[in-house]
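The step that takes the researchers longest sounds almost clerical: writing a folded protein down as plain text. Below is the pair of lines this work produces for a single protein:

——
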Amino acid sequence: MERHRPGSANPGSWCVRAITLDLWQTLITEGQGWPGHARHHARVAGVRSELASFGHPIAAERVDAALLKVRSDFDSDHDRGLDISFGERVRHMLAYVSPELPDQLDDRQFASVLAAVDQPFLMHPPKPVKGARAVLVQLRNRGHAIALISNTGFTSAAVYRTWLERLGWLAFFDVTSFSNDLAVAKPTRRIFETTLSAMGVAPAEALHVGDSGHHDVDGAHAAGLSTVWVRSGRQGEPRTPPDFVIDELVELPGVVRQWRKARRD
């Protein structure tokens, strides 16, 4: 987790309205051309190139299978609210390629493999959803504290923040929380509580927005936040009824106005 603005509110203050946002399928998407496929192929090629340069030639199929196995691992972990560091994920990937491989690399070599997995995100980035920047501008101009809470996979928190800064979005967020940075994932309440604590905001004064019924709506509700389900993400219906439902992110400012009015009434 990283705080980008000093906390400006006391927990429980009724004048504070905080918005926490999911990232994937809420603010960003793969868009046309499926850059995720290009990222995967770049990772396979990059890892193979680095390993070969260290005297470990590996078939593309083995690296491909190892990356897919790790993807299955973090999907399963996230469903249970768990995560590990980006470095640990890459070590697991190397162990799936060959059990002895992680111990055969020195620190410099391992760092090169980390970069081979991490950097393709910047080479083949996702796309903002329609109206995302305008929504962030509106929320910030209305004085809302804003945080990003994202489950992550093959990309480090540092690279995500680099990309958000390049996009001109990082300054919108008071706090950015990534699961592989905190070793905890949505839907567990701790990732929400840790983020709000850094903002100086009580859960009752926060509204979480996301596309996953399980990770976002159920998780945020359990942590005491109001919830907005972005239904267009199609990431499974929540067990807990959301406070609001939208089909596109551009509807969010209107929902936030309703939420604030309801809290005043």
Notes: The radius of gyration is 19 Å. Confidence is low (pLDDT under 50) at residues 8-16. The chain is about 50% helix and 10% strand.
